Amino acid sequence: MKRLKILCTLLLVSFLIATTQNFLTSFVNGFNLGWNIGEYEELQQVTSQTHMSLNLIPRTDSLQLNAENVKDSSAMIIVPEKVTCITFVPNGQQNSTSEIIYTVVDVLLNIGILVCVVILLVQLVKIILSFRRSEVFEEKNILRIKFIGRMFIVVALLSTLWEFLRVWWAKSLLELAQYNISYMDIIDWEDIIIGLVILLMNEILIIATGIKKEQDLTI
Is 81 helix (H, G, I), strand (E, B) or coil? Predict the structure, then answer.
C-alpha cells in the first residue's frame, strides 16, 4: 500500500501541475491575441470575429514558392494545416439572426463543456485522495470511476458538436482562394478512447472488488 500511496501522490501532483500549466498557457496566449485584436479594432474602428485552429486542405496539388528562408535567402514552400482566421466588419453593423443563434449555441456548448470538465476534475481528485488513504476497493470509488468514464464520453460528444458547429460557421463565412476548410479532426477521439478505457478499468475493478469480498467472507 505504501507504493500505491506514493504513486497516488505523484499522480495528484503531476495532475495539478499539468492542469495549471495548460490553463496558464491557454490564458496567456488567448489574452495576448485578444489584446492585439482589441487594439486593432480600436484603431481601425471595426469589429472582429475569430475562427481558431481551422484545418486547411489545398485546392490543387500544385505547390508554389510562398516563403523565404532568412538564413540563406533560399525560397521555400509553407503548407499551412491549421490556421486562425480573423475577419473584420465596420462598427455598428448589426448581427444577423443566424449569427445570434450561433453565438448562443456556442456559449451554451462552452458552458456545458466547462461544467463537465470541472465536475470531472473534482471527481478525479477525490478518487486519487481516496486511493491515497488505501480505500481502493470501495463502492464509492467504483461509482466515481464509472461516472468519470461516462463524463469523458459526454465531454467528447459536446466537444465534437462544438467543433462541427465552429467549422460549419467558418465555412459559411469564409472562402479561401487556394485552400478548403476541412471537417477533418472534429471528432474528439482522444476523450472517447480515454472514457472507454476508464470504463474498462472500472469493470476490472468491479471484478477485483467481488473477489476481495468473497475472500473476506471465506476468512
Answer: coil
Please give the Cα distance from 94 to 53 (Å, whole number).
Answer: 26
The DSSP call for residue 93 is: P
pLDDT in tens, 30-77: 788 888 888 888 888 888 888 888 888 887 776 777 788 888 888 888
pTM (two decimals) = 0.77
Domains of the chain: total: 1
**What is the C-alpha separation between 64 and 76, in angstroms, rounded?**
9
Record the cell numbers describing residue 61, joined without a space. Answer: 496539388
Cβ contact 93:218 at 8 Å: no
How high is the mean pLDDT of the chain?
Answer: 81
What are the tens digits of pLDDT across the range 129-181?
A: 887 777 666 778 788 888 888 988 999 999 999 999 999 998 988 888 778 88
Cell matching residue 43? 484603431
Report how far residue 156's alpha carbon sits from residue 169's, in angstroms, rounded to the nearest whole number: 20
Q: Which domain holds residue 202?
A: 2-218
SS3 56: strand
Contact 146, 202 (CB under 8 A): yes
Which residues are CB-neighbours of 207 under 8 A, at least 6 positions away?
Answer: none
Contact between 88 and 44 (Cβ < 8 Å)? yes
d(CA 139, CA 127): 11
* E strand segments, the chain: 46-58, 67-69, 74-76, 82-90, 179-182
The CA R_g of the chain, rounded to the nearest whole Å, is 24
